Amino acid sequence: MWKQLFKTLPIEHLIDDSETSVKQPKMKRALGRWGVTALGIGAVIGTGIWTITGVAAQGAQVEVQSFWNASLLDLIMHGSDALGTHGLPGAGPAIVVSYLLAAIVCGFAALCYAEMASMIPVSGSTYTYSYATLGEIFAWLVGWDLILEYAVSNMATAVGFSGHFASLLANCGLTLPDELMSPLFHCDDPSKWCFNLPPALLVFFITVVLAIGIRETATANDIFVAIKIVAIVLFVVGAGSYMKTENLQPFMPPAGVLGVLSAAPIVFFCYIGFDAVSTSAEECKNPKKDVPFGILTSLFICSLLYVAVALVLIGVADYTKLDARAPVPHALKQLDLILLEPWVTIGILFGILSSVLVYQYGQARIWAAMSRNRLLPDCFARVHPQYRTPYISTWVAGFFVAIPAGMFQLSELAQLANIGTMFAFGLVCVGVWVLRSKRPELERGFRVPCLPIISSLGVLGCAVLMLYLPLMTWVRFAAWLVIGLLIYFGYSRRRSRLYTQDST
User: Fold this and answer.
1) Distance CA 204, CA 225 (A)
2) In 3D, which of 267, 266, 265, 294 has the Cα closest to residue 278?
3) Among 135, 155, 174, 344, which residue carries the largest CB count within 10 Å?
4) Are 239 and 310 in contact (CB under 8 A)?
5) For position 83, which CATH number holds?
6) Is residue 123 in some structural domain?
7) pTM for the structure as a whole
8) Does any domain span residue 202?
9) Angle of helix 414-438 relative to helix 95-119, nearest 10 degrees?
């Protein structure tokens, strides 16, 4: 058993499984490098670009009433003093620097993903990379983690769609009954039957698109990405002419460098999502080149967009007087640019659409990859003979996200996606270093420069960011991993390919 837990699956076997299996149709290779890049932009640019800047620039007073809500770092450093009200210093106009620092830290992991993707052009992302470098138990844990990350992130994102959709309908003079806009377990009137219909319908619509085919998926994502980029450009150009230099002075906040560093972890989580690009490897025309290009290019483009929006927003309004919950609409009202506000709402809606699409796409590929190695039921790896998509895993993932999104208010669980992402990033940074040592002869379409330094900084950055998350998030994450281990030892281990190979 111990031998199996830490045994790796050779990269050559992983590639052969995706290319030479005769048991079922292959997934269609239809994505070029710009299609892959659009997937990355679709995943990364969501609602955060319109909402996070205000909080990060202003800072906030955080009231911690219990140990469960205190960050693990505060508990380690301050113990019982972590409770109470604490001031979180803001970055002020230097929020632009915070965005750049976050992009650099995220770039460490992106570089490692790019090298791994250039060597292992197989869907499954971090799950597959961990199987090839660290062993089956790590592969299972990170695969189980990615299921949680993608599902919870999409549940919370889809729930956020409901309010913005209602706002857009209100602007058109339309309203939906409260019973169709409230989660089942958070309904104001317990005697009524409620279901938050818009997020559920959103996920089902996305699921249909994903099941039909990768070409249709890519086309839909391209449209969503184009619309939200147009919304961002309209804001930057339309509001940019109203920028005032006095709003950018003094550039550094009263808290100095501490304010810039404190804001960096907040804005960092706007960047996560590019890892979903690596799940597209089996549907790329040239995965060893296209996936690394898509990961790094999408991160670069998203960084420019974040910095541009932040710079214009802080430049057109006094950041200390912005409405932190909706800073962009608040700034537009101050400037009497009311006509731009609907575009912001449209940008938010299509940002949500593209994020949900890419995460649902990635989730189905993770399930299919784990099923192919027999860690999950075999049916999840089936590819539709006509549409050439993993249709069963796509539909199951759709129901897995859509129904809870209509029933629960999931904002508290959203941080589980953050800790799961950091865990996966850290393992990739370790894995790329392991493969450099174990398999230096492998062809690499991309190589991480200054590898020991870059990967070490990636691991360190992920560890520090995880420490900023509340203790309750750590407990929930640990509970999810324990459940995963019980399933692995009770079901998956004896079904896995490694176990059956060793038995024979």
Assistant:
1) 19
2) 294
3) 155
4) no
5) 1.20.1740.10
6) yes
7) 0.88
8) yes
9) 50
